[in-house]
């Protein structure tokens, strides 16, 4: 497994270097609301419609832990009426920019403040899990918070229209939760096991009674790296739990998880899920609701 660890580390380093070179698309002139992640950007768009200009910083198919922004986008944050961020350590490359916007007097709304935060813990790392959106009931709480903050901080917004849009979106989220619960109920308890490339499905597991067997990257961020002992332990856990599928993330190269499966001699398939980023229109997960629905279908198909 030491060769596996070296191989995985090299792949991870190359992926990070490539991500650092990728530039975000420039923001439009004078946004009133700036949103860090594209999942939250989709939700804010659904709530405000065409009432307010919304600039989402994170491009489709990106890693929220490592994407970077331009100087123009950073300036837009400091000139916004409101900045909406995920928080809980998710946007690791944007921390200084969020802090600068706050120092400039811009109200900051962090979705993580509205959720019941779960902790993740491994031998190497622990902390708050920032991936709350994998539980639709947490998204409902975030919509409640966003409705209040948008009404308070965005001058001229039609509060009645905002409330109507928020009610409609909450109904969609509640229907999503019911659909996922029904779909996952078709899986026996012994089939509800998940292995991913990093710890991203803790909230989904808590909501729908899945067991997280482990993750290739032992932490809540893609910027960590696995050790040889981490990989040995994960391979043993996969064999013991008879896990049939390893789930890679659509916004991350699946080479890490493929190498683990091949070099550890695991008889498993590797399937992809949409996890931390939306796709472009037509890519399978262009909205939050589409992302969660697609993941539910893929998990049931893979584990059923």
From TrEMBL:
Residues 1-22 form the signal peptide. The keyword Signal applies. InterPro entries: AdhesinB, AztC-like, Bact_metal-bind_prot9, Lipoprotein_PsaA-like, ZnuA-like. Keywords: Metal-binding, Signal, Transport. PROSITE patterns: PROKAR_LIPOPROTEIN. It comes from the Bacteria. The keyword Lyase does not apply. It is found in: Cell envelope. Its main location: other. Belongs to the bacterial solute-binding protein 9 family. NCBIfam families: AztC. This is Metal ABC transporter substrate-binding protein. It comes from Agrococcus versicolor.
